[in-house]
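## retry 2 of 3
previous attempt timed out at serialization; input unchanged, resubmitting
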Amino acid sequence: MNIIQKQLLDLIATHEDFGSYSLRKMAEMVGAKGKPQTAKYHLQQLEKDGLIQLNLEAGIIKLVKRGFAKASTSPIYSLPVVGSANCGPATIFAEQNVDQYLKISSSMLPRNKSNLYALIADGDSMNKAKVGEEEKIIESGDFVLVDSEYKNYKTDDIVVAVIDNMATIKRFREDKPNNRIILEADSTEKYLPIFIHEGDNFLLSGKVIGIIKKN
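## retry succeeded, writing output
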């Protein structure tokens, strides 16, 4: 997704009266000062992609709800996929923009879906890790479901870690005696652990709560 379109979506979500703004004002808010047609073009693209309801003449700009139901008792939900995460060393950039949407039955997701996103697993260092009630393992190409608001990390959680702007999926272990965090593989192959110390460029981007198999 274009960065301006992402900014516009964020503004629409946080400004109830965004539709009353002039195109010139909107352009200025997304860093395109003096280019109202730029704002108009990207709004039209968002409408084309089905992400917003747009009527500039009437001053209407609204987000379109991602989840919807049509002739089904199991609504379909569109889950944002924000890139890939390596299941080996941390070597794949953790993209923050939405790449695509994974359409999935709401019955396969937790009740609270607003804090979920998906990553595409790449690698085999977690191919013994069992996730969820069905205990699915993480294989390369699978969609990994992540709770971005999870905060109380504990030993044995499977997490998405971002190290020096690179994302990796690993098992979390807190090593309090040595004042460090250890990220471990859970694989049929042998992988060295990753040791994280205070001051390292590191963050946890969520807990893995489910797997959608690539097949």
